[in-house]
Amino acid sequence: MARRRQLYEGKAKILFEGPEPGTLVQYFKDDATAFNAQKKGTITGKGVLNNRISEFLMIKLAEINIPTHFIRRLNMREQLIKEVEIIPVEVVVRNIAAGSLSSRLGIPEGTRLPRSIVEYYYKNDQLGDPMVAEEHITAFGWATPPDMDDIVHLTLRINDFLTGLFLGVGITLVDFKIEFGRLFENEDMRIVLADEISPDNCRLWDSKTNEKMDKDRFRRDLGKIEEAYQEVARRLGILPEAGTRDMKGPEMMQ
Ligand code: UDP
């Protein structure tokens, strides 16, 4: 394969120039970080599973007319995406109390929230992704009020849809983080879902046992991380054909 120009390397993914203008290749690594990269590790096969899981969820969301950056999966670890201008805001939706909500507000983990709560965090590693209000986002021009209307509307639809989809396979969607970007096509600009949706950025609990099936297994040293990610893929019916035999996937092309 031709050498590709690397545009950006994040904690769990690398972005390469795509084959055509306006496209990028998103490569999923096995690297895992937590607590603003203070904790680092590798989860064998994670990239392959997240590539698959995110592909599946993005396709399902597109089927209900949620615009996304996803074009198609290229191989075990890579997907072709549309180039967007990322809005520097992490959007978190919570259905059940966990993680930082529980620790900040003293609400026991596992408490069902009276309604879904949407929170915003400013994407800035140096500042540790501080929580911000919509006021900050619009005042500092990270997104406009109409952008925010689209983002909230899409986020609530995504939450409802994914909650039902996971419930159907015996998984409770506790909370998750998504990101949006601006897609420029001709003279138009549209807000689209970007980044990924995977057990790296969702809290997924087994509906019967409440066992954690997500990155909290890494954050909290609970072990059986690969197995948990694999189980999510298995329940969604998308375990890679090679099963666990070839979870490493092809070597990265550069
Ligand atoms: N999350 C994420 N990236 C971040 C912070 C949070 O994907 O940088 C996800 C996390 O996996 C969880 C949700 O957002 O599903 C809420 O995370 P929380 O605020 O509770 O923070 P945490 O406890 O993970 O530090």
CATH class of the largest domain: Alpha Beta
Order of helices and strands: EEEEEHEEEEHEEHHEEEHH
**Helicity range:** 25-40%
Structural class: alpha+beta
CATH fold node name of the largest domain: D-amino Acid Aminotransferase, Chain A, domain 1
Oligomer classification: single chain
Beginning-to-end CA distance, first to last residue: 9 Å
Strand content: 25-35%
Radius of gyration, whole Å: 18 Å
Helices, by number, come to: 6
CA-based shape: globular
Query: CATH superfamily assignment of the largest domain?
Result: ATP-grasp fold, B domain
Kindly give the count of domains. 2
Name every ligand kind in the structure.
Answer: uridine-5'-diphosphate
The CATH architecture of the largest domain: 2-Layer Sandwich
What average pLDDT do the residues reach?
A: 94
Let me know the number of strands. Answer: 14
- Given as residue ranges, the uncertain stretches (5+ residues, pLDDT < 50) are 249-254
Largest sheet: 7 strands, antiparallel
